[in-house]
Amino acid sequence: MATPAAVENLPPPLSSGAEQPPLFDGTTKLYTCYTCPFAQRVWITRNCKGLQDKIKLIPLNLQDRPAWYKEKVYPLSKVPALEHNGKITGESLDLIKYVDSNFEGPSLFPDDPEKRKFGEELWSYVDEFMKIVYTSFKGEGPKECGSAFDHLESALGKFEDG
């Protein structure tokens, strides 16, 4: 029988009137947006590694984001961004690798060198896959995104254990 997942009390998103949390106070913070798929990637990584007590979520309301976020935290004003060891880092795929490499918990990549290399190749395809599928679903890109799914399906069949 599966163990029920722990329920995390999620803080409310901060909007333009919110005060800035202390910067570089020794707390590792993940600036995120609950509805942003790019930010969700890093949030999922945090949770898969069991880091809910080590990385504090700072959710932002992207439609009414605080001015201090761009001015003092992350000049690109995008999410996600991670505050750790006296610096701020952004870009979701880079952050996933960073969290995987710099924090305890199960690794997201296999130990087998051949599988790890293959995982890195798939990793580099993620953004292209998302772009094809997202624009297709919105009707802005190719009308058919089956080839992107076929590529992924074929790749995942390379090893018997997926």
Descriptive account of the structure:
Helix 1 runs parallel beside helix 3 (92-102) and helix 4 runs antiparallel to helix 5. This protein is globular. It has helices spanning 37-48, 67-73, 92-102, 113-138, 146-156; strands spanning 28-32, 55-59, 81-84, 87-90. The protein has a 4-stranded mixed beta sheet, covered by helices on one side. The mean pLDDT is 90. Strand 1, helix 1 (37-48) and strand 2 form a beta-alpha-beta unit. With 162 residues, it is of the alpha+beta class. GO terms for molecular function: glutathione transferase activity. This is GST N-terminal domain-containing protein. Residues 1-21 are annotated as: Disordered. Residues 26-107 form the GST N-terminal domain.
Keywords:
globular, 162 residues, 41% helix, alpha+beta, four-stranded mixed β-sheet, 4 strands
Record field, number of beta strands: 4
Low-confidence stretches: none
Strand numbers in spatial order across the main sheet: 2-1-3-4
Distance between the termini: 23 Å
Order of helices and strands: EHEHEEHHH
Which secondary-structure class do the elements indicate?
A: alpha+beta
Helical stretch count? 5
Oligomeric form = single chain
Largest sheet: 4 strands, mixed
- Please compute the radius of gyration using only Cα atoms: 18 Å
Shape: globular
